[in-house]
Design goal:
alpha/beta, 6 helices, oxidoreductase activity, SDR_fam, Rossmann fold, TR, Tropinone reductase-like protein, about 15% strand, 5-stranded parallel beta sheet
Length: about 180
């Protein structure tokens, strides 16, 4: 009996949206989902990063599409979901809310604008994106939603207090919604 991952299970025929998928954890998630056979759409604020990653994924034989999206923008989130609906024929199986923003400053140096920006990007945006994606997720008949949080949400880390608060809020809100 072989233990290769392709024989253990597959995501062939499944669709996924991963926000912030051109770097870090998001990049690794796109690689894993596509490696298991899912068709993946990702987004980034940076077209150059998208182009580089799409070339890499094409060379690996992965089925990945991408678009520019700043998830902190309500209009761009709406455009992203419209694009995903078009690419995946009105269905979405997996939504990974990964994209986030962090500003590193001492707690006393954060401005109200810094706070509003981080909370909007890290809490409001994934929540709203999930609301927008709901009809696509429901239409798939088999859906999963993942919110990527951080250890910063449960432990104090210097210079990222607002980020920590946003990730703590995200973790608490998702647990309460279950």
């Amino acid at each position: 009996m072989s233990t290769s991952r392709e024989q253990r299970w597959s995501l062939k025929g499944m669709t996924a949206l991963v926000t912030g998928g051109t770097r870090g954890i998001g990049y690794a998630i796109v690689e894993e989902l596509a490696g298991f056979g899912a068709a993946v759409h990702t987004c980034s604020r940076n077209q150059q990063e998208i182009d580089q990653r799409l070339e890499e994924w094409k060379d690996k034989g992965y089925e990945v599409t991408a678009s520019v999206c700043d998830i902190s923008s309500k209009e761009e989130r709406e455009e992203l979901i419209n694009k995903v609906s078009s690419v995946f024929g009105g269905r979405l199986n997996i939504l990974i809310n990964n994209a986030a923003s962090v500003i590193m400053k001492d707690a006393t140096q954060y401005t109200l604008e810094d706070c509003a920006s981080i909370m909007s990007t890290n809490v409001e945006s994934p929540y709203h994106l999930t609301q927008l994606a709901y009809p696509l997720l429901k239409a798939s008949g088999n859906a999963s939603i993942v919110f990527i949080s951080s250890v910063a949400g449960v432990t104090g880390l210097p210079s990222i207090s607002i980020y920590a608060a946003s990730k703590g809020q995200l973790s608490y809100s998702v647990r309460r919604a279950e």
